[in-house]
Amino acid sequence: xxxxxxxxxxxxxxxxxxxxxxxxxxxxxxxDEEPDKYQAVREREQVLRAYFLxxxxxxxxxxxxxxxxxKIPAEPEPWMGIQEFQQxxxxxxxxxxxxxxxxxxxxxxxxxxxxxxxxxxxxPGEDALDWTHYEHRKSLVRVLRKAAELGIVKVVDGTIEGxxxxxxxxxxxxxxxxxxxxxxxxxxxxxxxxxxxxxxxxDWPEGTDEGLRRRHRVYRRLLLSPVVYAKDVPEADFxxxxxxxxxxxxxxERHTGFCFELYKNAALLTLPEQRARFTLFPDSxxxxxxxxxxxALARERRAKDDIPLQFDGSLCLTAPxxxxxxxxxxxxxxTGWSKQYREAGIAQTARDLLAFLEEWKxxxxxxxxxxVCLRPLLARTTGRYPADFDPGTLQEGENGVxx
Length: 403
Description:
Elements: H1 14-25, E1 29-30, H2 35-43, H3 45-54, E2 59-62, E3 66-70, H4 88-102, E4 109-111, H5 112-122, H6 134-150, E5 154-157, E6 172-174, H7 196-201, H8 210-224, E7 228-229, H9 235-243, H10 245-255, E8 259-262, E9 266-270, H11 286-305, E10 315-317, H12 319-333, H13 339-343, H14 346-359, E11 363-365, E12 372-374
Antiparallel strand pairs: 1-3, 2-3, 4-6, 5-6, 7-9, 8-9, 10-12, 11-12
Helix pairs in contact: 1-2, 4-5, 4-6, 8-9, 11-12, 11-14, 12-14
């Protein structure tokens, strides 16, 4: 592998680091809603643009109304969807909403009833939208809530919640200027792409040096994924992490608040302390506490039962074994769990825990056998109650787990 070319060091100060972290964590920064963050990006635009273009290959867009970092992943992952959406219909309705907004002028107002009629007319597929159907109304409610949160529609009068109960609930919306910039631009019409692979590849023009592509892929995985596993990426990409580990560590820690960690089979970015602006593990969800306790139990059981690891460092269990370990967790620590999981059955708790671990790439399930492989990142964490923990003193929603 050739020697990576040294890049000139720009003045990337504390303000630039703060701005970089906000750009990485948020979809965009709207000037009217967060003027201080927007101003920080504007003041450090040059160094931010240079860094993100050089390392992960992200494009910084600075508009007079917003700042946005186009965070294109090296490989799409399930958690990268819109978390509030629950089914494919939600995404289809959202895309129809974007098409509807394209036909409206900036600052133009429209009624929910007019939108409903238009969505029924343009919705694709054989199953038409039916606003007398509760689940269809719920889809639109989720979509419009998210659209308002993102800032691509503005509520002028009324509330969308009433649409949950009655289909003739009315809301007045307005089209803000930022709605024009929600979708990223592509070098050609979307219908000309054969699939998501071509869409991702379009981010690098034909003839782009493979070394540059590799650097972009590696940084994108580090910045956007909980962990980078050796078996999940091309061998040359993980070799890049090994060869340039000291430079990557220095670069990451200089430009962000993250720390770079590299192991035999995994690489990841961590934070030395909790910071509210980031999506972190463990989080405030009740199942997060169970996950840390389960990690402690897994370490204990592997040592006690002398369970061998797989070639990639994973620990594989049968589905019954996994549920049995969840049962042991409940017997030991369940008195301190939230009411939801104190009352839930083992099967439900196991399903929720596995889904949570899969989201954080701490476990994966074999679709054919149902076997559960606990991945190396799970061994990076552990949780326990303090010695003087008394579950009777907890208020609902609190936990007593130390990570």
